[in-house]
Amino acid sequence: MTMNTMPRGYGTSRLQFSAVSGPGHKPGLSRIYPAGPGLRRRVFGFCVAVGLGLTTAITAHADPLAGLPDTRDDLSAKDRARVARIVEPTSSFAAAEQFELMQGGAGTSTKLINRDALSHFNANLTFEEEETFKLGNALFRKLWVSSPSSTLASDGLGPLFNGRACQSCHIKDGRGHPPEGAADATSMFLRLARPPETDAQRKALEDYLIASVPDPVYGGQFQDLAVPGLQAEGRMVIDYQEQPVTLADGTRVSLRKPDYSVTDLGYGPLDPQTTLSPRMTPPMTGVGLVEAIHPADLVNQADPDDRDGDGISGRLALTRDPVTGKIEIGRFGWKAQKATVRQQAADALNGDIGVSSPDAPNPHGDCTPAQTECLSLPVGVQANLGDTEAPDPVMDLITFYSQNLAAPARRDVDDPEVLAGKEVFYSLGCAACHRPKYVTSRKAENPAHRFQLIWPYSDFLLHDMGEGLADGQQVGRASGTEWRTPPLWGTGLTKIVNDHTFFLHDGRARNLTEAILWHGGEAKTARDGFAALAESERQALIKFLESL
Length: 548
What we know:
Shape: globular
Helix content: 25-40%
Radius of gyration: 23 Å
Largest sheet: 3 strands, antiparallel
Number of strands: 15
Distance between the termini: 27 Å
Strand content: 5-15%
């Protein structure tokens, strides 16, 4: 294990985990993301097979966990022991931990805190990679238009969609919001799913060929926008009911419980079994570093049968890689249904915007066979540019941009109240699911992500969060009450970056106190402990969370 000095501006008295090779490190984009025509054909073939229900195309593992590593093969025995010591939860709260300030490792952004605080690139990128990041940023902000259009490189929108650009949902690369008052709903939408009805559907779910069974008419996502001349699918309606909660010291807090429905349906009724699950877009902080966590670290912290008896039984989310067909660990999405940043980006581009790519090649997006008018509309595929609307290198650049959005430096790490709040965080058991730190793999694809000490505060596992937060949808391995532990880095910048403080998967929580009080299931003990705290302790905990 090597140690390098921290980025300029933080002196040389502190050290930071890093394996970046310095000025000589200039990996070309083609090396990071090799994706020739052969790969595109394999991706397309796999997606077509799934779409036709040909589940026999891939043989399921008898034990899907059998192929996952339980030992870090990127480290020597000596380094494994050293890393284990480094990531051990602290028991001392008198001062900040070493390197705690730089929660994204050597790539941490130390730039000025303002509305762009979550949009900076990893500080340890090469000059060449900075250019790649900026090109990806331009595509991330690109507004797509309907076909046909004179802007041949930009048409392909829809026909049904939720937003015209990645940035429409991931506002300033931060957290989305529910529709409030006259605000639009472009950063929150409804997932549609229903129980399997046929053996083929059950087999596809068991083999991880699909994550859920979509509505037969409206598909897997409810689109409230459409290109000119086509009717949108409808409109989301939220009805909130206030629920008063009294804490142990007599403080009264009101929680709002949402009820979701749809109206102005454009294509007839939903299937009676279809459930609605709201999904607010999460921040994109440090997703490339999350991808760089060694799978063995996730395997070893899973405890599905609660063998240690602590009341917490985190489970690995599993998904099948659409390129290789292998079972991988899900890390992204509210139910951890995606294994890689690229997969998440391609599916969002197709489902949210209706734009096809080599990884999600359907140019009509989420249009179903029942929506014949939608399927009859022109698409944006240009033969001279490729066989999809966003051909390579578009997905390469969007993926690279997403993977290299930096985690911001912590604030007030030595503040006495923040340290007191951190101790409360640990004493309540919050760190059991919101695992503070990892050292990323030496084999991470991008050298800038390798061997970094990072502080995401998540175990990236599925946990039963109780009926209060349940959405009733099975997504992959996740049941209707299970959710992935969301990482906490960047939480304290939500107000500055996104001008709101809505939290949880549907934004029902209007502040961090409400978010904590909605915790149930495996987190109920921690939630009840929070409700029993004195006001000064609760405020210290909130201040700690706001420092992340």
